[in-house]
Amino acid sequence: MHGSMMYEVARQRIADQRRTAVKDGEARVSRAAARARRAKNKATEPIATPAIPDYAHELLAAAARDSVPAPRQEPGRGRARAGR
Questions:
Q1: What is the total count of domains within the chain?
Q2: Would you say 30 and 24 are in contact if contact means Cβ atoms under 8 Å apart?
Q3: In whole angstroms, what is the distance from residue 34 CA to residue 59 CA?
Q4: N or C: which end of the chain has fewer CB within 10 A?
């Protein structure tokens, strides 16, 4: 008697798991559809491009402003020797 009862409980659990899996699959599909709609809506927005300077001095000024500073000189520690 207990064996068949355990079998029925296991069968019900498997059926519940399958129902949950189907429901999760449907939810996953609807989420994917919503993501696709949002991506489509975002794609229609105009793309902003950076302004390109008209004159060379503007281009060079921007390059000088964004350049990397020179390394600073640090005091040494005694005399320098070649490694051995």
A1: 1
A2: no
A3: 43
A4: C
